Amino acid sequence: MNDPYGIPRPRPVLPGEFPLWEEALALVDRDLDALLPDRGPLVLLALPPWDEDDSDREHVYVALPDGRWHGNDLWHGSASDPAAALAAVAEAAQDTVMECLWQVWPVCAEHRIGMHARQEDGRPVWWCAGGRDPRDPAHVRAAVGELDAPHRPRRARRGRR
């Protein structure tokens, strides 16, 4: 379907169309809900090929519930490998959330900086670069899909006036 100017409109991806991406999106949605409740769930949207020279495959994006997205489409090679699918969806979700909501996500509760998806031991994880002090190294916060609500250190109680 096209808009009045002939530009293709995205369509929702149908259940079962890209099963591994759908499973990956369900895990990423858990992470989104843990740190940014009431912002999801994210959805998969598809657009037809851009031109005749393009492949016959649609471009699939991770979008906010209102249909906005940002960044590249999901790499089609990741649709057949669970770890690659999860990594691709996590990165696409992060691009969409950060650029459309202008909000860093996910944030490491310990260092209060944005984390990035990367591979550790064959599975995608949320990785934090750590603090500035060499005694505060980079670390894996959680596997993608396993983030929990932020744990903030207790502040010392201030004396009452």
What's the end-to-end separation, in Å? 65 Å
Q: Kindly state the number of beta strands.
A: 6
Radius of gyration (CA) equals 18 Å
Largest sheet, in brief, is: 3 strands, antiparallel
The residue ranges in which pLDDT falls below 50 over 5 or more consecutive positions are: 153-161
The domain count comes to 1
Helix-and-strand structural type: alpha+beta
Topology order in helix (H) and strand (E) letters: EHEEHEEE
Describe this structure in words.
The structure is a single chain. With 161 residues, this protein is of the alpha+beta class. It has one domain. It is built from two helices and six strands.
Compact summary:
Helix content is 23%, strand content 17%.
From the structure above, extract its key features.
single chain; about 160 residues; alpha+beta; 3-stranded antiparallel beta sheet; 6 strands; about 25% helix; about 15% strand; elongated
Topology, pairings included?
Blueprint: E1 11-12, H1 19-35, E2 43-47, E3 59-63, H2 82-101, E4 116-120, E5 123-128, E6 139-143
Antiparallel strand pairs: 1-2, 2-3, 4-5, 5-6
